[in-house]
Amino acid sequence: xxxxxxxxxxxxxxxxxxxxxxxxxxxxxxxxxxxxxxxxxxxxxxxxxxxxxxxxxxxxxxxxxxxxxxxxxxxxxxxxxxxxxxxxxxxxxxxxxxxxxxxxxxxxxxxxxxxxxxxxxxxxxxxxxxxxxxxxxxxxxxxxxxxxxxxxxxxxxxxxxxxxxxxxxxxxxxxxxxxxxxxxxxxxxxxxxxxxxxxxxxxxxxxxxxxxxxxxxxxxxxxxxxxxxxxxxxxxxxxx
Length: 240
Prior knowledge:
mainly alpha; 2 domains
């Protein structure tokens, strides 16, 4: 994909901007602009939906672009096999390690503060649903979809029957991403963007910090799959 020109940030979608300018991800995360599941929207539409000034956000993205000149992390240029290995070793491993830690923290703060901070109980329930969803989802990717993509790439044939066969599993994974995205957005809202109340104890504060880290990692995780890996497979692009 050609990078958007400096003169026009209106045409490309948020997802396209996220791929073309990796440094823009920090701007999107700062303003909670959805660049993974909702990345199909233009930047202007995405900003207006959440009450942001598109011009202000564009200016901030422009200011970050210099960092992309020497940006080493350009996953859109990687082979699909390398990208898959990175996703599994970094993002899937992070999710697997973080889930039990966050669940234990939520149990602790709910026991201490659940009666006076009722949203904690909803956050714990939503995170439990998210954990169950992601655990199942990642297994399907690791044992079915990702090996199929690697096999397809190894044969270097975009018209291989497997290229058509993986389209349905990709759509299913994208649908599950949407559901996971809805859950993390609800947690974000319930926690007031992970802002602990004034009376929060250290454990409460750490819980929200860990949830924020989980949110940021999951957003980048889904971005790599939806906007790069899966888009490549839907367009039948085989990198050599």
